[in-house]
């Protein structure tokens, strides 16, 4: 089996460099709206993506890329069997613009469409989450373990803590479905619901054991691919919100401390139409879901 450790180490080093010269070096105020008031892009997003892609391309000329801002600029999104870097240059652009201190560079690497490693660098916190297939998950070099919480509601000690994400879409159906999902989840014995504003860092909280579950509908592959393998390698579970196998292109994800917790969330979550990342005009009936 091929060993991609070299690529992982290179990805970590360029994520840190791009944070230093891009994310952390900029006071960005030139903001453009993409699909909704919660979907922003700045010149820094675009610059950081260019820094990352040109460094990787220089070192690995045969590799392919799926980058959030390249796709936004019109590049075709296609995951092939070739080694592919899936990049979110700034996950948490709204936070970045408002100086809310949770922004991350998220990088996943796939071969034969299977994720081999994931890197989530939370720039302001200086926290580096990473995991390689079969090699465990780490935060700043220390092993990560999901909480293992099983979510047995008969136990008074049950303390599930969920993380969800702020609602990106302003579409009526999406808004009402998302709010009613949270309402249904709050009927479980939960201690609280949190949202940091970056899907990548939110999901990594499940890998740390700080949260027992995360779910979202409407994220893209660059938001969730890296943190999905980090959760899995920390002993957690990722699945589709309909209970089927996780598919980074489906835009639906549950990440949880155990299969039991993931299953319980899948049973109460209602989805709304949301086009797959890898299909243009898929005919699902989505309106205004970014
Ligand atoms: O800031 P970004 O990359 O748009 O991502 C958001 C969701 O789309 C936060 O996860
Ligand atoms: Mg993102
Ligand atoms: Mg982004």
UniProtKB/TrEMBL annotation:
Disulfide bond keyword on record: no
Catalysis performed (reactions): a myo-inositol phosphate + H2O = myo-inositol + phosphate
* A single BP term in Gene Ontology: phosphatidylinositol phosphate biosynthetic process
Name the coenzymes or cofactors required.
Mg(2+)
InterPro entries to which the protein is assigned, alphabetical = IMPase (IPR033942), Inositol_monoP_metal-BS (IPR020583), Inositol_monoPase_Li-sen (IPR020552), Inositol_monophosphatase-like (IPR000760), Inositol_monophosphatase_CS (IPR020550)
Q: Where does Mg(2+) 2 bind?
A: 90
EC code(s) of this entry: 3.1.3.25
Gene Ontology molecular function, alphabetical: inositol monophosphate 1-phosphatase activity; metal ion binding
Identify the pathway.
Answer: Polyol metabolism; myo-inositol biosynthesis; myo-inositol from D-glucose 6-phosphate: step 2/2
* Enzymatic class: hydrolase
Query: What keywords would UniProt list here?
Result: Hydrolase, Magnesium, Metal-binding
Q: Name one Pfam family in it.
A: Inositol_P
What this protein is called in its record is Inositol-1-monophosphatase
């Amino acid at each position: 089996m091929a060993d991609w450790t070299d690529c992982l180490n290179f990805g970590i080093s360029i994520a840190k460099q791009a944070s230093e010269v891009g994310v952390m070096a900029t006071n960005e105020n030139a903001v453009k709206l993409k699909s909704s008031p919660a979907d922003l892009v700045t010149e820094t997003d675009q610059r950081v993506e260019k820094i990352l892609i040109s460094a990787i391309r220089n070192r690995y000329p045969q590799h392919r890329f799926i980058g959030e801002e390249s796709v936004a600029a019109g590049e075709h999104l296609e995951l092939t069997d070739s080694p592919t870097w899936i990049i979110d240059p700034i996950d948490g652009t709204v936070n970045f613009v408002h100086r809310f201190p949770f922004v991350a560079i998220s990088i996943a690497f796939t071969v034969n469409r299977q994720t081999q490693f994931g890197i989530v660098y939370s720039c302001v916190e200086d926290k580096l989450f990473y995991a390689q297939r079969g090699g465990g998950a780490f935060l700043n070099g220390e092993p990560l373990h999901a909480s293992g919480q099983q979510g047995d509601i008969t136990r008074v000690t049950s303390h599930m803590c969920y993380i969800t994400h702020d609602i990106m879409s302003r579409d009526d159906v999406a808004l009402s479905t998302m709010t009613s999902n949270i309402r249904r989840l709050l009927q479980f014995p939960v201690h609280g619901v949190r949202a940091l504003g970056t899907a990548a860092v939110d999901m990594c909280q499940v890998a740390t054991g700080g949260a027992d579950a995360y779910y979202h509908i409407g994220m893209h592959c660059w938001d969730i691919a890296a943190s999905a393998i980090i959760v899995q390698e920390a002993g957690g579970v990722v699945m589709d919100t309909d209970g089927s196998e996780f598919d980074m292109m489906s835009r639906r994800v549950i990440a949880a401390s155990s299969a039991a917790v993931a299953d319980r969330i899948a049973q109460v979550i209602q989805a709304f139409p949301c086009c797959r990342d890898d299909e243009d005009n898929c005919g699902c009936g989505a309106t205004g879901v970014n």
